[in-house]
Design brief:
CATH class of the largest domain in chain B: Alpha Beta
Largest interface: A-B, 35 and 42 residues
Strand order of the largest sheet of chain A: 1-2
Largest sheet of chain A: 2 strands, antiparallel
Largest sheet of chain B: 6 strands, mixed
Strand order of the largest sheet of chain B: 6-9-10-3-11-12
Structural class of chain A: mainly alpha
Number of helices of chain B: 18
Shape of chain B: globular
Number of helices of chain A: 13
Helix content of chain B: 25-40%
Number of domains of chain B: 2
CATH architecture of the largest domain in chain B: 3-Layer(aba) Sandwich
CATH class of chain A: Mainly Alpha
Structural class of chain B: alpha/beta
Strand content of chain A: under 5%
Order of helices and strands of chain A: HHHHHHEHHHHEHHH
Number of strands of chain B: 22
Strand content of chain B: 25-35%
Oligomer: heterodimer
Distance between the termini of chain B: 26 Å
Distance between the termini of chain A: 24 Å
Helix content of chain A: 55-70%
Radius of gyration of chain B: 25 Å
Chain lengths: ~325, ~500
């Protein structure tokens, strides 16, 4: 049979040549360094407590993985978070709507806001970079219209979700929610028809369309997902901080995109894994926590985040070349050009 | 075959040029002399290598082997401006102008006359006007190029070439988009340039035009030069024979024994503004209908419209006798259509993905249960496709980009076969693939027709169309202009219809 023909010799095993394994290695190194310099770093309670700070980014990064693999980007995710948070707070505090149903309404609002992005991108064929740059400003602006410069406090029962642990463990609810959804979305991206369409579209949208992939619906879906996950992040954030403000999560889209790209997704689409995004999120968390404990100033932390994003993109390029190179090495007699 | 060149020294002498794209030879041992004071036609079917030859001389492509000499000195061009520096200008069918700049700016782009380090606009406009006047055309040098006709834009390109003292002009299908009066004006200018001692190469499809303007004709076929004639010593019929003369035996011919069934696909007065109009055609189950014509005749657009990729302005599509609205490729697929697109890598394949993923992309949802992919089934489908089309590969996990063009095309075909279509639209199914893969594709098409599939095959390979089709439709300038049953179809007739010649029989 054709299939048993030689696979060719590779100098490096295939699994080691994936961006995810590099991210995992960096995570181990970062963790080791932090643990060596900061004694508290090996305290499980401390780490779990700190983890809650990153679950909002994490939730948005899960959905952003789909958006980026599909060949798009959503710059408006942090603004959706702010607008959903302020909308819910406004409805509850100013109009007296009970909070519990509102918490379940929030994902629908997020779906609507993400859906607007998706419909504009899919139906008008505009680049998502520009569309979501516009809605990033628009949604943030609407959030400010709603609450102005005020902080609106939320009832005590609703706040402090990050201090609630799953019964009998030290695991805080946001972390468990994040890990659960990560597993679910990992399966969706890598095991379902929808996930396959997302990859096909990000690889070559035209060829995908010619092959009967419902490109418009998939595009709208990934933006709706991004909106829903931003809304969930909004609920966690206003619960954790106890207030809603228009400037919540300002600039957080940078961390979200950094996590996804650092996790091995190609910013041009067609490549990426949920596992990679999760690993990269924890890498960012460890680095920022490490820097925080080491008293690195906030502005230097931001600088480091930006630098990390560039390194992540460059790394992606190196991998593309490296894979091409190993492929051509292993090819042997296959194509005579 | 060799015609004495007299005392004249050629301005350009190309010797033994070879060029391959993606492993396929498109030019083989091509040699060409361009003499001063002569208009030299390059003719041949689509893909015969005429444009490639012109582009090598014009510095767009670098040959794999062979040399180009200008005025007796060997030159090595790496980019078009190297050729321009040697006085060679390539004029394209679609003028390469800057639409938002003025005519004068386009003529002098990159080398505007300067004074005190700044562009001397007066000189720019004055010199542009002089050149345009010498060409005998009335174009305002200050006008924006955007508003100009294609013909006038070509004049701007030509003026630019002349302003750089080009002595050698390569015209790549420059008359394809022109009206008869514009063609006449262009020919007047070409004769004028010839009389001034320029060497001109003229690529075209309309043989009447070529016989009117050219002094010498070189015929290419499958990348090789198969003949050279002086215009006054030859005839249109002889040139047509040279263009197609290839032994039919090298091809697989359709098995025509089986019965042809009811109408599977029908279009009625299908129109898409600016692309094609009034396309009425029928393809029956078990029938292979060839759609012949020149590049740009609108054949690809028709196939894309039927498949729901291009919007139609008028007319209707009927599948299995019922009028249907095709909403995009997905809808078309559900109605039993399949399209093997012309541009394999751009529209047909996900290059980084594996063979099995590509083979099953169109049916991934059909193979799934509750949205969950069933990869084991998908891999079986891919294995069946590989076996049926004899795809040469290491394994179905191999990325498709590592396969040769012919094997990639076979995967595209098996992708669409997996959808079990009733009607197959094939757009240039054997372009750029090697002979054995070609034969394989032909065998498959014949087999599918025998199983009762309706096939509409667009092809620029005339002999392929003749060998494979039960019926041949010919398109020219967006319309169907002729129809030949298999028995009545000859290469000469099809070419004549495609190019708008009146054949003397």
């Amino acid at each position: 049979m054709n299939e048993v023909l030689a696979t060719g010799r590779r100098t490096v095993p295939r699994w080691m040549a994936t961006p995810e394994s590099i991210t995992a290695a960096l995570l181990v190194v970062a963790f080791g360094v932090s643990a060596a310099f900061v004694p508290r770093f090996l305290d499980a309670a401390y780490l779990l407590d700190r983890s809650s700070l990153y679950m909002e980014v994490g939730l948005m990064a899960l959905a952003m993985t789909f958006v980026i693999v599909a060949g798009h980007i959503d710059l408006s995710c942090a603004s959706i978070l702010a607008l959903v948070g302020t909308s819910i707070a406004t409805l509850h505090v100013k109009l007296g709507v009970p909070l519990l149903p509102l918490v379940f309404l929030a994902p629908l609002l997020g779906a609507l806001l993400g859906g607007i992005n998706g419909v504009i991108v899919a139906q008008l064929g505009l680049p998502s970079l520009v569309v979501t740059l516009a809605t990033m400003a628009l949604y943030r602006g609407l959030a400010q219209v709603l609450l102005g410069d005020h902080s609106v406090s939320l009832p005590a029962w609703f706040t402090g979700i990050e201090r609630v642990a799953i019964a009998g463990t030290l695991l805080p609810v946001p972390l468990v929610l994040f890990l659960g959804l990560a597993v679910a979305l990992g399966l969706v991206l890598h095991k379902t028809v929808f996930g396959t369409w997302v990859f096909a579209m990000g690889t070559n949208a035209e060829a995908a369309r010619y092959s009967g992939v419902p490109v418009a619906q998939v595009t709208i879906s990934v933006f709706v997902m991004s909106g829903v996950f931003s809304a969930m992040a909004a609920m966690i954030m206003i619960s954790r901080l106890g207030v809603a403000r228009y400037d919540h999560a300002l600039g957080l889209e940078l961390d979200v995109i950094t996590a996804v790209v650092l996790g091995g997704a190609s910013i041009f689409g067609g490549r990426g894994t949920v596992t990679g995004s999760v690993l990269a999120l924890f890498l960012i968390a460890v680095l920022q926590t490490g820097m925080g404990v080491a008293n690195v100033k906030a502005e230097y932390q931001a600088t480091a985040s930006g630098a990390l994003l560039i390194v992540a993109v460059l790394m992606g390029n190196c991998f593309a070349r490296f894979r091409k190179w190993t492929a051509s090495k292993g090819e042997g007699s296959c194509s005579g050009s | 075959m060799v015609i004495p060149m007299g005392e004249q020294v050629p301005l350009v002498k190309a010797v033994g040029l070879y060029k391959a794209f993606e492993g396929v030879d498109v030019l083989k041992n091509a040699s060409l002399d361009l003499l001063p004071g002569e208009i030299h036609a390059l003719v041949g079917e689509n893909g015969a290598g005429k444009s490639t030859l012109a582009r090598i001389i014009g510095g767009v492509h670098t040959p794999r082997a062979g040399t180009v000499q200008v005025n007796g000195r060997t030159v090595h061009f790496h980019r078009p401006c190297d050729a321009i520096a040697q006085g060679i200008a390539l004029i394209h069918q679609e003028p390469l102008t800057f639409p938002d700049l003025s005519v004068a700016e386009n003529i002098f782009i990159g080398r505007q006359p300067r004074r005190h380090g700044r562009i001397d606009w007066n000189a720019v406009h004055r010199e542009a006007a002089e050149i345009l006047e010498s060409l005998g055309v009335k174009i305002d040098p200050r006008a924006k190029v955007r508003g100009l006709s294609i013909a006038d834009q070509q004049m701007v390109e030509m003026a630019s070439a002349l302003s750089q003292h080009a002595k050698i002009l390569l015209m790549d299908e420059t008359t394809a988009a022109l009206t008869p009066s514009e063609v006449e004006r262009l020919f007047g200018i070409l004769r004028q340039l010839r009389d001034r001692g320029a060497a001109l190469a003229f690529i075209g499809h309309r043989l009447e035009e070529i016989f009117e303007i050219c002094d010498r004709i070189t015929v290419l076929r499958d990348g090789e030069i198969v003949g050279q004639r002086l215009t006054k010593e030859t005839s249109i019929d002889e040139i047509l024979r040279l263009m197609v003369g290839r032994p039919l035996a090298a091809l697989f011919a359709k098995d025509v024994k089986h019965a042809i069934g009811s109408i599977a696909l029908e279009t009625r007065r299908l129109t898409c503004a600016g692309q094609f109009s009034d396309i009425t055609l029928q393809v029956r189950a078990g029938e292979v209908v060839g759609l012949a014509g020149l590049v740009g005749a609108g054949r690809t657009e028709v196939a894309r419209a039927i498949f729901g990729i291009e919007k139609i302005d008028a007319g209707e599509i009927r599948i299995g006798g019922q009028a249907v609205q095709v909403a995009g490729p997905r809808g078309a697929m559900k109605k039993g259509l399949a399209l093997v697109p012309e541009e394999r890598q751009r529209h047909g394949l996900l290059m980084p993905m594996s063979v099995w993923q590509n083979t099953t992309l169109a049916i991934v949802d059909r193979l799934a249960r509750f949205g969950w992919r069933r990869d084991a089934m998908a891999r079986d489908v891919a294995r069946i496709g590989v076996k049926r089309l004899d795809v040469k590969l290491r394994g179905i996990d191999q990325p498709i980009r590592e396969l040769s063009g012919g094997n990639q095309q076979k995967v595209v075909l098996s992708k669409w076969l997996a959808t079990k279509p009733k009607v197959m639209l094939l757009d240039e199914p054997t372009r750029g693939i090697d002979i054995s893969a070609k034969a394989e594709v032909h065998r498959l098409v014949s087999e599918l027709a025998a199983e009762g599939m309706a096939v509409l095959m667009i092809s620029s390979d005339l002999l392929e169309v003749l060998a494979m089709s039960d019926r041949i439709l010919v398109m020219r300038e967006g319309r169907i202009v002729a129809e030949f049953p298999r028995e009545e179809a000859t290469a000469e007739r099809v070419i004549a219809a495609a190019t708008g010649q009146v054949l003397r029989e």
